[in-house]
Amino acid sequence: MIPYPHQIADGRWLAERSAALNAADCRTGKTGTAIIAADMILAVRILVVTTASGRAVWRKAFEQWPAFPRSVMIGVGAADVQIVSWAGVTQAEQRAALLKQRFDLLILDESHYAKSFEAARTCAVYGDPRSAGDEVAAATALRTRAAVVWCLSATPLPNSPADAYPMMRSLCPERLAARGDMPDVLSHAAFMDRYVITRPKRISRFRSIDVVVGGQNLEELRTRLDGFVNRRTQADVGIRAPIYETLPLLVGKKALDRAILAESSLDRRKILNAAATGDTKELEMSLGPLRRLTGAIKVPAIAEAAAEELANGLDKLVIMAWHTEVLDELQDALQRYSPVRLDGSTSVKERERAEHVFRTDRFARVFLGQIQAAAEAIDLSSSSTLWFAEVSFVPAMMGQASKRITNVNQKRQPFVKVCVLAGSVDEPIQAALLRKWATIREVLK
Asked: Are residues 169 and 273 in the same domain?
């Protein structure tokens, strides 16, 4: 592979640091950049922790990018490069085998998977917090087995500034110490008090919990991160950002009445408050059944609109949904366009084949993807148009899924449309989620 100039520059930036976060946008070439940087520091023994679907992507990348050969394997063994999943690092046998080894480099791909010390995978890579975060016991942490640790994520703060704490506390604790006018925020409590806005939420008659509703002192947090984070947007490398629109859908009166009836039983104020605070559990409880219902109601209208677009010159179309049942109905309705499908049950081999077929087969004009399964580690830029039949309640996941159709070689303007029933609760919910996402972008500016 021939690197782009920005990949060489970003590779040099990484190579100069023993711990760093490459927060470049999706589709800007972070994988190739990391391997270029690994070559620059002459790293031979490398451990890559990535998503289940990302393992095959990294194996292929180590065939294409390195300046010198290394043996590569998915799993734990004697190879120079070992590629494991985030779920795998929590498995006792695999983790024990990794802890017996020493590595020149640890790459934490999609590092936002380790955003909370409450998750076993976070403790597996960073260590176990003690005394409310005043100490982190790292004796059995994978980061201690590597001389250099690089994090890669286009969405390092998927929910709020709080997501940065485990990474900073483990990889650059000196940045959390007091200096100048900035106070000591090494403990989790101090960090949360300084940079996160919370609000009490009553969960029972006798108990309430604090939920994150935003961030504060963000300029100061950016100062602490300066030099540790490299942020490069798609626009920086000449990738056109998607244009986001809603696609209002008209359905029959009976179908619309069903949706309105289901929606009428909901507490709209409660739902919008949950969207503003990022309370995904509350959104799932309140809107899960409604999302499934409205998704099914929208299928005929989506299929009709898709057929019209494809008949009027659109070459390929990506449609993403949350529920497999909605994908089933769309697959049946759009059968004449030889739809390619990817969901949570798709194997790694089938995933690679689906991407290849959609890219190369001119008759495969529709790609159907489940949002969680198709939001990362796949190139769908043979299409410039993506529709969301249903939405995720996590803005970062929607943004990451949207960028599957972007690419430095994408010459067309990408369009992303959210299919909504006119006047439905979808519209104010998405507005609230986008406001929350704005806080995250402010830290990474």
From this structure: no
